[in-house]
Amino acid sequence: MGTMDIVTDNLATVRNKISAAAERAGRKPEAVRLVLVTKTVAPERIALALQSGQRDLGENKVQEGLKKSEALADKNIRWSMIGHLQTNKVKDVLRFAAEVQSLDRLSLAVALEKRLQQFGRSLDVLVQVNTSAEASKYGLAPEEVLPFLRELPAFSTLKPKGFMTLATFTHDENEVRRCFQLLREIRERARDTTPQGAALAELSMGMSGDYAWAIEEGATIVRVGQAVFGPRALPDSYYWPQSENAGNTD
User: CA geometry: angle at 250 spanning 160 and 108, to 5°?
Assistant: First the structure.
């Protein structure tokens, strides 16, 4: 089987599993957005997924995303930044990303606001929450989320749409589901008690190994890469040397 066939078949399998999980949860399949994670994947292979109708792509590293967006500039793509974002990379990320899923501190909100004001545009953002309570993971602690959201109206260019999390890196289904359930509970409290209210609709949770569970727990966005493109040549520790799983968003 050729490379194109493998990518096409894998993508179809993931889409079918998304539909099945949504139906099990009594939801419509189109209520779940697939963000295809392209870290370490060459533009030529990404193009195979684009030929199958995939339009939402996610990147973890700014420079990698910028290069790929330039290489695929003639394609109809919506790029999401899903990895930890340093404030000194804000200018570059805004050159390609329509969405940042890893807003986790006020200093980043300040940096984004400054650049977005200069560019005369707004940006969809998701607030990253550390639901696993692991020191190696980025994201706000659950108790910090509501106060953080109450600060965000001061940043007029930022459009909070919901939340993102990484579940505990484990085969324990109950623990993984606990993380997803916690994020859903945070969203419900936030919708009732913060200025953003019903606009906080999105739950980005679930990767290649657990996206079906995430959908059953209410995910509206899943971030899947290896289930489509296969194992990566570089380990996640190449991207996050401080911890092998610190930023594993697929």
Answer: 35
